Amino acid sequence: MDEHEHDLNLLAAFLEDRLDQQERTRLVEHLAECAECRGTLAVMGRAAAAGALLPVAPMPEPAQEPRAWRVPGRLWLPLAASVTIAAAVGLRLLPVTPRTEVSPPSPSAPAAVVDRASPPVAEAAPSPEPMSSPAAGARRSSPPSMVDESLLVKRGGERRVAGKAFRLVAGEWVDVRFDPAAALPIVSVAGSEDRAALLARVPPLAPYAGLGERVLVVFEGTVYRFSP
Amino acid sequence: MTDPAGEEPEPGVAEQQERHQVEALIAEAVRVRFALDAVSFTDRVQELARAACRGSDRSLLEHVERLSLDDLYLATACARGDERAWDEFGRGYFGFIRGFARRFLTDQEAVDLADQVIADLWSRGKLGRYEGRSTLRTWLGAIVAHAALNAGNALRRVLPSHGDELGDRLAAALSSAWDAAAEEAARLLRQIVEEAIAALPAQDKLSLRLYYEQGLTLDEMSVLLRASKAALSRRLKRTRETLRDSIEVLSQRSAGIAADVLRKGLNLSRLELDLGAVLGESPTPERRRRGAV
Lengths: 228, 293
Description:
- The structure holds two protein chains of two kinds.
- By secondary structure, chain A is of the alpha/beta class.
- Helix content of chain A is 32%, strand content 13%.
- In chain A, a hairpin with a 2-residue loop joins strand 1 (158-161) and strand 2 (164-169).
């Protein structure tokens, strides 16, 4: 594997603050010497600061029968050729089967399992609904008392605070229920004075604001975005 | 399960326990919705975790807990040729890839680049290189950024140079500032400056390069480096002063070639070392506001 390809996994993890101290130190040492990785990091940093790495709602599934995945027209022939060659050397393409699985959650879907202890909310739940394999039938779940909060805190870069789950995206804790397509009103809160003033007016936001300097939380139909 | 005497479990038992725990984490986080079954995916996760934990203090389970498992499941299924997985990937990420490329390329260049990235992800199995250490979105952003930088030509019109020429350009500017005639003096200066930069601690070196070479603002750096703007500003100021002092010491040590400079009584500390101007960047509004740190 190309060394820089490997670094992209670490770079992305670095952006999301998911490296341990040892890895972070090694990566900083590498970045100090490697112009190529530094350039990539700089581009990502600009994008992250501008909010370009926040999740967006996926395109809806087509209503009609499944069709072949779209490939940019100009690339169809060379791509088809490479796929044909791959098939000839033993790559087995799976047949398209009718969609019987649960589709990605709609905005009105119930909350994901990490939040099942909380009351249902109206905001979108972009997290996938975890369940057992289809062959096992009914979805497996454990009662809230058996959920290991410490695991939830560490798992996949998520943190749970006061009934809400947040994911660290490029330095910002983002409410997993944030859906840009929902077009909720956004309140931007920059600086400590504004932050204190808002929290005095809306005390329930305090636990979420305490996550860090940059937090995006959906609360009572409004998106609050805290920054330094 | 330990034996009643409280001794360590046999290796086979410990591995089984570890696997059960990984399976439990996967069952919590992943919806098995493609042909890639839970057993095969668990194998993949353990393989990645073992490689990542080699030479690290972190346990395999600690590593797996931090992974974006559902994203990794999707990417792995795509890499194994699952068309339904590719459909889901397309719906979720094609738009992001194209939009992200448009952030720093012209429209047509962005379309071309995005198409190439998408084609590589599928036909060259590049999605299989995703290791789940971040969200798939951030990793894809890094892929697009890396591809765009390698493409090079369009970015040079849009972004500051990311070449590793900080030392050369700084030395060249110092030379011209002194009206130094000797080519040998210029060469020595370059050497001195490179030596001074090389001696910086990695964190300071990185901050310096991100700010002056890559042209990031303090806001952008604070997101990347998890530090406040005030702390970053202080660090950059300190680093610049350290660099200036090192250059002065190193140049004093090099007799002969630098002697004409020294004879002229030049005092490095009096030079207005605005590194932004030294690097000859275009005067963007950010740069004008930034001035000397």
